User: Fold this.
Amino acid sequence: MQPAIYAEKLEQAQQLLAEYDLDAWLILVRETSLGGEPALAMIAPFDLTWESALLIGRDGTRTAIVGRFDQAPVLASGLFSQVVGYDASIGDDLRAALHHLAPRHIAINYSTGDVLADGLSHGLYLRLLQHLQGTHYSERLVSAQQLVGALRSRKTATEQTLLLQAAEAADDLFLLAARYIVPGATEDEIAAAMHNALAERGLTTAWPADICPIVNTGPVSSIGHAGPTQLQVTPGDVVHIDFGVRRAGYCSDQQRVWYVASDDAPDPPADVLHVFATVRRAIERAFAFIKPGVLGFKVDAIARTTFAEAGLEPYQHALGHGVGHAVHDGGVLLGPRWDRYIRLRRIPLLIARPLPSRRSPLSTRPIISTACACRSGALTCIT
Assistant:
């Protein structure tokens, strides 16, 4: 990621603390090179080995309490106004930093509904309670879910640019993929061509490469999160590709659909056109409905109503999800009120801005928090 983004996100975090009436955001981590705390990658370009605490205050205070041998990269980042190194235990310095802030509400990263706001392990939570023994701060701990969700959803100007560049890079690769969608080509071969083009451009896939892209040809190909197979493209097939690019730390997630013409059916069948038109209409209606303050499930309901009006079965997933530093970036979800989608978010402030139309066919549209990307779509016929 670009260095400026970390400073932008820390400034944003401070503003969100005030918005949600929180006094401090405490991120407790250890051995971060092994993963485990998704929020860290938004605000810091370094890994931390020893038990470490990053404390962002509503008043602008930014304190990093880290092991002595982790100090150098934290200091070099210039992101934290105070960097404290310790040897034996983080406890005394953590309590001192909290005493200085005297927070009423301390946001920590746990959530039952958003995995990207749930980075604090149960073991580290128990460690935190040990460090706070003898203080009132353990009674002031609250979930950072709202803060983290908003921080991920509300893209800065720099993030918007990077997201759109990732989407444009993916568009170029969809155009390339169309050249390989010919009778006799296998799903694997189409995916390999896209992987080769990614490598030539110095890019990587937005999610694990064995299932990115997802390539489906014909009616017997697996639907969902399954990798490409040896199934061959045959005339009359509908070919679907689900693909995303990671570029400069930010992801795209797009889908495209092609029809492979046959001698008997040079044009897409009526039922295919009906489904495609319904999907497109559902996306367009949902896009038009989005505005600041609308709940995500209400946006999803617009699309479901469109399916019902067209006589189609409802889709068994959410209408849309956040993209950003991760391909499933948490925050706002445009999904139904199902148990598995227990987080509900209001749409943050959006500035509707059209993205210039490109040549690729479109079956999903990227919507970027603080900027909406909208493109006209069409079903491409391969002859």
